[in-house]
Design a protein that fits this description.
binds glutathione, two-stranded antiparallel sheet, mainly alpha, 164 residues, Glutathione S-transferase Yfyf (Class Pi), Chain A, domain 2
Length: 164
């Protein structure tokens, strides 16, 4: 394990560290990075936005003091979630292809990380944190669109149950 941390992806005996390096490798490998430099850059922007959101989400999740944790989760649901829901919703609205995907006219890894992180949020911090997300019709439609991709639908049905 090159950096003494998970995740690690092994490809033909080579180890790849860092979650976003892994997801970019897989995106390039499986044509999930979007078409052209500008769309790829938009995907990068969304992946970095996802990292910001995930970093904020991990703080209440890791908090050991129960009262403090409760307060942090409340604050996260009331302030942080609406902020990121607005950012992602605007990206969907601004997509000139009007495809329902975040970038261009096809599924990219940006759709997958956003779908994944809001799902993880509910299971890690509770359903109440998802209020702003569930009240946003664009994001609810986006969630349904990603969940209906056949390979994703199959994986969701059979994956092991875990918090994230
Ligand atoms: N920036 C790294 C962070 C990796 C990381 O912090 N992994 C944690 C688990 S989530 C880990 O393995 N830490 C080492 C340890 O717990 O000993 C990434 O995105 O992959």
């Amino acid at each position: 394990m090159p950096q003494d941390a998970v995740p690690v992806l092994y490809v033909d005996g080579e180890a790849i560290s860092q979650s976003t390096a892994i997801l970019r490798y897989l995106a390039r490998e499986y044509d999930l990075y979007g078409d052209g430099n500008m769309n790829m850059t938009k995907v990068d922007t969304i992946v970095s936005t996802y990292e910001d959101f995930f970093t904020a989400m991990i703080k209440p999740f890791m908090e050991k003091d129960a009262d403090k944790r409760k307060e942090m989760i409340k604050d996260f649901g009331e302030k942080t979630v609406p902020k990121y829901v607005n950012i992602i919703s605007k990206i969907l609205s601004d997509n000139q292809d009007n495809s329902g995907w975040l970038v261009g006219s096809k599924l990219t890894v940006a759709d997958i990380v956003i779908f994944g992180v809001f799902g993880d949020m509910e299971s890690m911090l509770g359903k109440d944190t998802a209020k702003a997300y569930l009240e946003n019709p664009k994001l609810v439609a986006h969630n349904g669109k990603v969940a209906a991709v056949p390979a994703i639908k199959d994986w969701l049905a059979k994956r092991p149950q875990s918090a994230f």
